[in-house]
Write the C-alpha cells for this entry.
Amino acid sequence: MTLLRGVGIGQGVAAGPVVRMAEPLPAPEKSRSTAGVDAERQRTRAAVAAVAAELQQRAHAAGGAAQEVLEAQAMIAEDPSLEEEIDTRLDEGCTAEWAVHDAFAGFRATLEAVGGYLGERAADLDDIAQRVRAHLEGVPAPGVPDPGHPFVLVARDLAPADTALLRLDQVLALVTTDGGPTSHTAILAREKGIVAIVGAAQAASLQDGQTVVVDAAAGAVDDEPSPERLAAVAERLAVRAAEDAAPPAPGALADGTPVPLLANLGKPSDAADALARGAEGVGLFRTEFLFLSAAQAPTIAQQRAAYTELLQSFEGRKVVVRMLDAGADKPLAFLNDAHEENPALGLRGLRALRASEDILREQLTALAEADAATAAELWVMAPMVTTVEETAYFTALAREFGLQTAGVMVEVPASALLADRVLAHADFASIGTNDLTQYTMAADRLLGSVAGFQDPWHPAVLRLVREVGEAGARTGRPVGICGEAAADPLLAVVLVGLGATSLSMAPAALADVRRSLAQHTVDDARRIALAALQADDAAGARAAAQTAATSPSQ
C-alpha cells in the first residue's frame, strides 16, 4: 500500500476505479497536406459534425445549466464564420489539423476582443478545438471522460470550462496532481460537495481502472486498498449517509457554544437547497446577479422583487445582504467603465458605489421596502471598506433608509488593523477571506502565476482575522466569516478560535463544517488556532492545526 499525499477538500471519503483525464493535445506543426484540399475539407466537416452531435447528445443527458453550456458549444462548433476561417487555411494547402487549430485560436482572440457574452464564450473554443482535433487524429478527446460508470477522476487539474461536463452522480471523487486549496478544482469541490484531494503530485502514477480510496479528511489516496480498508470505507459512507439523512442541528462546538452556520448565495432560487442542507440563515447574499448581465442598473421594483423573494424564504432568520460589489473582476459599464491599470486596487466596492451614489441609494431603497414587507432579519453590509470614515458613511446612510443593522466587509488589512474603530460605527463585521488573502499577500487572486500565495491558512492572514475577532469581542459586535476559508472544516475551527462568531459558506460545505465543529470545544479551537498562528507559512499552519486537532487537550 502507498499513500499519495495531497490537500484534502472537505471530510469525505470515496472508493472506486480510476479514470484519467487525457492530456491536452500539443499544438500541431504547420505543414502542407498531401491529401489535397477537398479531402482535408471533407475530413474537417465530418469531424466538426461529429463533435457537434456528441455535444448535443451530452447536453440532452446533462440537463440544467450544463445543458445550456454544451448546446452553446455545439452551436459554436458549427458557426459559419468559423467554418470560413478553417476553409481559408485549407485553401492555402494546410492540413485539417493545423487549419482547425489556427482558425479556432484566431476566432478565440476575436471573441475575447468583442467582450461581453461572446467574450465569455471564448474559453469554450479551446475544448471544442481539442475535440475536433482528437476526432481528426483518431485519439480520445481531452477533457472530462464519460466512461458510463461511477469513477474517481484523476487529472492534472480542471479548467473552469470542464466543470459543465462533470456528472456528480458519476464522479465519486477528484484527485489532481497540480493545484492547491484555492484552485478552481478545490473551489468546485467545496461548492458541489465532491470528495477531492488536490496537489497530489504522485497521483500521476495512477492507472485507469485501478481501485483507490480517496480520503479527503486524511489528505491521502490509498492506491492499493485492502478488502478490510474498502469495508471500512463502506461503513464510513453509511454513517455519513445516515447523518446526512437526519435533520441537521444548529452549528455548535462540542461544549455547546453556538456557531451559526449560514449560506453564501448568489440568487434567491438558491435558498431551497441551502435550507434543505441546514443553513441557519444567509451570511452573504451577492446582489451582483441583478447587475452583471444588465446594460443599465435594474430598477428599484426589479430589485425589490428579488430581495423580497429571498427574505420570504428565510422568515425569522438572519439574512446578510452585501451591497453591489463591482469593479476588478466584475466591471459594470454603467458604474465604472474607465480603464484601470490595476483594477483590484482601483474604484471597486463601496468606492465605486460612492462615486455613483444614486445606484447605492436605489439599492438601499429596494432593500428597505423588501424588509418592510417580510419577516426575515435583514442585515446589510458594504463591500471593500477600507477606512473608518467609509464605515461611518455607509452605516449612517443605511439608517437613513430605516435599515437597522448595518455592517462592513473586512477584506483589506487597513480595516482589519483598525477593526476596533471600524466596529465603533458598524453593527457587525464580515471577513471576506478571499480578498483579505489577496491584499495581505499582494497576490492577485485571478492570476495563476501567484496562485500559491492565495492561501487563507497563511499566518499573516490568520493574524488579521484575530485582530478583527478580538475587536469584536471587546466591542460586543458579531464577527462573521463569509469567504472560501469558512468551507474548510479544519480552518473553520481555527477561525472560531480566532474570534469568529458565525461562518458562512457554500451550502454543500455545511455538513462537513458542522461535523468538524462538533468535535472540538471552544478551548480546543483556541489551542488549534494558536498552533496555526505560530507557523511560518500556510503549509506549516495547516500541518500544525492538524496535529493540534488530533492531540488531546493539555
The two ends are 34 Å apart (CA to CA). Residues 458 and 537 are 5 Å apart (CA to CA). The chain has a mean pLDDT of 88.
